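Hi L., both proteins are below.
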Amino acid sequence: MPLTVATDNPTARRIWPITAMLFTVAVVVMLVNGYGAAIQSTAFFGVTPSRDDYISAGMACLTTLPVFAALIWCGWQRGSRAGLVLIAGPGAVMVVVGLHLLGMVGASKDPEPGRAPRLADLFGDLTLLNWGAVVVLVAIAATTHLLRLRTRRTKKAFVG
């Protein structure tokens, strides 16, 4: 059986716009969180960031991982496959930056210069946008999954 291109099939969907949109969203998420982390952890006007500032910035970078995972799941539900590997690039950058920021020591006047990150740090001010994005993307992916199941059941009812 010869291989056919997608344009030969009039009912075939084009997947690359979905992949391009998801990759663009991933880059925007990376840039927004990277900018927020940079502002949080940069010394302005002689003020040295505290350990809490570094932890907050690092958690903002690390909590992009659930967003990238939700983007990949959403893309997978919409039919994208190989292009989703592109989202791993911004994800890897954010992991490296987040782990670097978590390893930074705060100012010398900091009362807890070596404090460890806490569970509550995952839900700090800089991370709320990420968790909101996760909720929205999971809702989109779950809705797509349910619509695909309904379509599959309807086709079975007509065939069987």
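That was the first. Here is the second:
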Amino acid sequence: MNYSNRFFLYAPVGLFLAIACAVGIHWWVLASRLGSWLDAHNGREVAPGVTMAFASRSITGFPFSLDTVFRGLSIRVDTPHGPTQWRPEEFAMHALTYGRDEIIFEAAGKQDLSWTKADGSKRDLVFAVGSLHASAIRDATGLARFDLDIVGFNSQPLIAKRVQFHTRRDKVDKFELAVTADDLIFPSNSALSVAITSRVDAAHALDAAREGKERWYTGLEHWRLATGKVYLTNLSEEFCGVKYFGRGKLWLNNLHRIDGTLPLYAAGPLRISPGCHTTSKLHYEIVVDINKPAAIGPFHPNFAKIGPLY
């Protein structure tokens, strides 16, 4: 065998080994960097007003992904009223070592969510989920897209078949928002399904918050002062056997409460299901005599019942 034949025999093998070594070193460097960052921020702020703590963590996924599994994780978000804290039983995040800057989150098992109301009282919600998946995509301007999908939400005050939330930054100073909730069941056995699509203007006022440079409620205040509004381009819901549809716009007033105009219209005659409670804190107050023909609408929400957001 001459030297030229040996070159063509060993060169592909050598090239493969070189690429494998480069990929391995690249993964090891990224995994070490991520592990060091997590350990340095354990029990400290990872963003303004957001603190992450965990008992242990492990990183796997060689050679093309970074799969991080946490034990004893808690995430605390500061609010003007007091802290809000989420403690999932199981939590993991996944990211590729190449391609776009995207992180996928998943949680399972028993979850505990505690928060402080505006009057200083404490609240706690224990719930379980069949699955909870979320993804976040970042670009040069910060968070560009966020998606959340919860299947099989089960708690004492509320059961939901599926809840989804999607938002993305548009290129024309707007956010697009979409929310769907299927088969929400309340203690009164009242069932509610909702689908909302909307857009948020004055998105530039939220840039610092998206980039992780200021607290979320500071960003909301900047958005309020910029006269930001949420335009609900389509809203449909089914509650107590009646289907509604509508569109409108929402904003934050000087008291940091939701305000706006959001009339709903019934898709047909109001025939409230027997035993169904037609009023709730976050729902439209509909006062009708179910034994007589009722008007189609509009029905207006009572935003005064919703407390300040911050």
